[in-house]
């Protein structure tokens, strides 16, 4: 495993010089600014094999990880538009630590973005789903910092795509979200998460409460922001993306997708390709 800060990881990984062909694939552990080892994978992609091309950093939803079939499908679709970095948030898959359900995860994303830039990509686009959708908003607004932790060098993205994100915390207005709160807040729920869903959840409550996604959306400018939400989302109704879009103002764009459900499971390949086109046009 690697050691040091997120900036150290980005600089000390096996990074090719501009005249050296990029490796076909790199998988390694990144050390976040607060000392958590995060499992990450880099793939050049069809359109991003040359240094300087765009790189997409994919932030999965709660209980996902970089090896899940739906995350691999997202990576394959975005690889047509640039290089792709996937990683597992803390407490998920092979990563260390415990999930804080979107709080300290901004440091995981910051380490992944800094690492991605180390491969020579001048443009980095963060694409997050559900919990990951809230993390990409907060990470862009905070520059990769959390609770006084210094921001990682090179961690600020050039464009942000937030898919199926909540606008506010502690939402319990739908049955799936009530089940999720049981999973996170109850000891028996956390056991289900650990042994049934490969997700190790921290037992402590947030202290302090993280910046809400709706407030983060208003702080991202001038970085371009795309908000995507399905009109059949069973977790978060349409007032959530509309609140985010209103907070984002002129620098944000809202896509309400007819017939789409929640997060990466429901994101069709056609939507992912449109996201890739949007990002390639907006980033930089």
UniProtKB/TrEMBL annotation:
Keyword Transferase included in the entry's annotation: no
Statement: the UniProt record of this protein carries the keyword Transport: no
Domain annotation AB hydrolase-1: ranges: 57-266
Domain of life from the UniProt record: Bacteria
Keywords: Hydrolase
InterPro entries (alphabetical): AB_hydrolase, AB_hydrolase_1, AB_hydrolase_fold
GO MF: hydrolase activity
Protein name, entry field: Alpha/beta fold hydrolase
Species for this entry: Streptomyces tropicalis
